């Protein structure tokens, strides 16, 4: 048997046993790692981080219907305070892999395998927030000095600096 280059992807699920047997199905459970660029600009699953995928492959007349769930942790940057953000993801997916490419189907079976990578990638990207925040009420950064307001809720300008902090202020100026 000749293995194609694509057969090395861990996201390929062999379904030879289900081909042409409508009504039959098989569960799968895969411990994978994230491919490159699994995410969007500000947030995504780092390449190589664990991605757990489980689901069911069902043989239907048109091809193989694959449905399941992928779990991973996305990391990114808070859009308000630039602090680190971790987002646990559990996304569901369902896709029909057709025996032949037609107008109605985007995915097809190749070499008796279905390739889950694009399906999982689409589901993960859809689940990611457009503007990630470290917490819903993150106050962001001070517009005047850029300090993280979450670390210093009483932060304000336009007042004389508390004398207890003046020594620290000098240190700051010296480093500039
Ligand atoms: Zn934040
Ligand atoms: Zn400030």
Can you offer a commentary on this structure?
The chain is mainly β. The protein folds into two domains: 5-127, no CATH class; 141-176, no CATH class. The protein contains two helices and nine strands. The chain has helices at 117-127, 163-175; strands at residues 12-14, 25-33, 38-39, 43-45, 50-59, 63-77, 84-98, 107-108, 113-115. The strands form two sheets. Strands 2, 3, 4, 5, 6, 7 and 8 form a seven-stranded mixed β-sheet that branches. The chain has a two-stranded antiparallel ribbon with strand order 1-9. The protein is elongated, with a radius of gyration of 25 Å. The chain binds zinc ion (2 copies). One zinc ion (ZN) binds next to loops.
């Amino acid at each position: 048997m000749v293995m194609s280059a694509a057969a090395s992807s861990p996201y390929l699920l062999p379904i030879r046993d289900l081909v042409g047997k409508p009504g039959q199905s098989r569960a799968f459970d895969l411990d994978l790692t994230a491919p490159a660029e699994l995410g969007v600009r500000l947030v995504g699953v780092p390449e190589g981080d664990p991605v757990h995928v489980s689901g069911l492959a069902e043989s239907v007349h048109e091809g193989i219907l694959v449905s399941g769930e992928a779990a991973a942790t996305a990391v990114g940057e808070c859009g308000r305070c630039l602090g680190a953000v971790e987002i646990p993801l559990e996304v569901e997916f369902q896709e029909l892999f057709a025996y032949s490419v037609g107008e109605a189907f985007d995915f097809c079976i190749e070499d008796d395998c279905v390739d889950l990578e694009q399906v999982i990638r689409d589901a993960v990207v859809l689940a990611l927030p457009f503007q990630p925040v470290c917490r819903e009420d993150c106050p962001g950064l001070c517009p005047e000095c850029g300090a993280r307001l979450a670390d210093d809720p009483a932060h304000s300008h336009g007042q004389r600096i508390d004398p207890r902090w003046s020594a620290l202020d000098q240190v700051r100026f010296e480093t500039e």
